[in-house]
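Journal club prep — side note

Before the paper discussion, L.F. wants everyone to see what a predicted structure for a comparable chain looks like in token form. Sequence:
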Amino acid sequence: MDKKTFKDAFHAAVPVILGYLSIGLVFGLLLTGSGCAWWLSLVMSLIIYAGTAQYMAVDFFLQNTPLWQVAFMTFLLNSRHMFYGISLLDPFARAGAYRPYLIFSLTDETYALLTSVAPPPGADPARFSFYLAAINHAAWIAGSLLGAVAGAVVPFDLSGVDFALTALFIVLLLEQARAVPAKYPFLAGLVAAVLALALFGPDNMLLPAVVLAAALLLPEGRKAETRGS
């Protein structure tokens, strides 16, 4: 292990670590509070590793949702990662043996770090990205497992705790705004979110908002490519 690169990655990941420990703990509490076994939290966090989708799965379990509907809704919810992946095609193509795990572990928060935190001088970019992703994943597993075990032992009042995921997104947005000088992407995201909310409602706005934001950002990306060439 490259200890210096790992320490740098850990330092960069601290905001996500704290957030994942918190929202992972809430997920574990919600899961066991719905009547599921504590170990299911560990399995889901290891294999699925999709925070919002795992939260949504709790409702699916409670409502005994058909498997095809679970698969379809999960695909729609996580299809935004396809847009994330487009911007990471080049660095992931150079990641070698790390590439499969980097693809699997690309969450919203990890994407925010990969696109805003530069590897330290002299560090292997692929290894630095791998450490970032693995540290975040470990934090999510630890938080969800802790919450599940605690929820299985002690009953909790869970009113309002699901806001933790929203709070983490707000923190990451502020960090991105500080790291990225251009403000147009944030304005485009805001416009896309407001329009999607107005047209599709809060339960169906996510995918339309991502598509609309991508459409608004595409011309700006082409201008940047033209300037770069």
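L.F.'s comment for the group: The radius of gyration is 18 Å. Keep this in mind when we get to the figures.
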